[in-house]
Amino acid sequence: MLQRLAFAAIFWSVTLGIAAADPVGTYSVEGVSAGTGDRYSGSVEVSRSGDRYIVEWTLDGAARSGVAMGGAFSQGSFVIGPAHQDDLMLAIGFSDQSGFGTATMFLQPTGSYEGFVVHSDATLAGQETWTVTAR
Question: What tens digit of pLDDT does each residue of 24-48 get?
């Protein structure tokens, strides 16, 4: 257990030096749909509004909207809370025309975000990758 925690701390310390942590920006999206396994693509825009992030997707022409909190290391612990420019992950709640769901996206050393998506109409998780197109 301690080895995994030490590895995680080293990984995130290195990540901070490689990629800008602030998740605000525009990204291209590639994903695998929760439940069906169908591939999709599109874009997502992340903006900060007060203590929250606003997340707006356009996926194969369909809209999905969400709000998020951020997560980062603080005083030796990983904490989730109000939006901040040092956030390394996003915990997102969203809705679209077929229901609602959650997504958890983590900053990668390349500056992209990768994570998992669960949806109210599916019993299996999907995956998304966000690649920066504008900051």
Answer: 999 999 999 988 899 999 999 999 9
